[in-house]
Amino acid sequence: xxxxxxxxxxxxxxxxxxAHMTRPRVTVSYPDEKKAxxxxxxGRHVLNRYEDGMEKCIGCELCAGVCxxxxxxxxxxxxxxxxxxxxxxxxxxxxxxxxxxxIHCDMCVxxxxxxxxxxxxxxxxxxxxxxxxxxxxxxxxxxxxxRPKTLPWEDWRKGDDLYTSGWMRATSPSxxxxxxxxxxxxxxxxxxxxxxxxxxxGRRDDAATGSKPLRQLLEPxxxxxxxxxxxxxxRGRAARARESADKNRAKMRAKRQDRKRAKxxxxxxxxxxxxxxxxxxxxxxxxxxxxxxxx
Length: 295
Ligand code: SF4
Ligand code: SF4
What we know:
Blueprint: H1 3-12, H2 15-21, E1 45-47, H3 62-66, E2 72-78, E3 90-98, H4 107-111, E4 117-119, H5 130-133, E5 134-135, H6 137-140, H7 166-170, H8 206-209, H9 214-218, H10 233-266, H11 286-294
The chain binds iron/sulfur cluster (2 copies).
One iron/sulfur cluster is lined by residues 67-69, 71-72, 97, 102-108.
């Protein structure tokens, strides 16, 4: 290499940096902003109920037997004949999971014969004492809408509850590809019979299961030639800019509502309850509320 070549090779080191300057940002302001989780993500467990409200757990203790961390404690009891809790002979009278031990392997989910125990997508929870770490049946059982109970030390966001049991629905019976995409489970309170995750088969239903092709998730890391044509170049940048503007608008709207609520509380006026983490965001009314705030 000549002297001139040697001189310019110095700038070669900047090539990678410069290439990344034009790629979309992949970091988010966690924990204010969170990325959507994959439907098979193993999070905090829930105890499910049938569509008629009956509990699915029959107190068989298979989950406790299979748990490698020995963190489940179950006691079954005969169903009272006049007001049965589950459709079986027995029901789970005591159910506890010790989250100081759980390794979220989901073996309990696979062992359960009635799909009673499954996992939500929530992993953002922490405790300051042992009692909070041991979840009881009252905390694990879904509410009357079929949604997980939200505990004070958990950070639930919209969507964390949506694909509960995703891992179970991705696992075909006996691991046989012939059964992939076949529904082998009962309906759930509030959700009905959930759609199977088709995985690699042509029967996948991304809208119903929340699964996303890996390519879509990892797009910001890919080179232009690996990105679907419609998301490349200026067209892709414009779509991403629109998406980010929508997110910023939603963030500003939430801040405005918080400010209004704090102001009303200060003045002793009645305030609406803070929105549930599972609620849809309010319709985009920023034009009107901006004017109201300005006045
Ligand atoms: S996920 Fe694994 S470690 Fe946790 S309770 Fe279930 S079987 Fe036990
Ligand atoms: S959660 Fe399932 S495996 Fe565990 S005791 Fe209840 S029915 Fe049996």
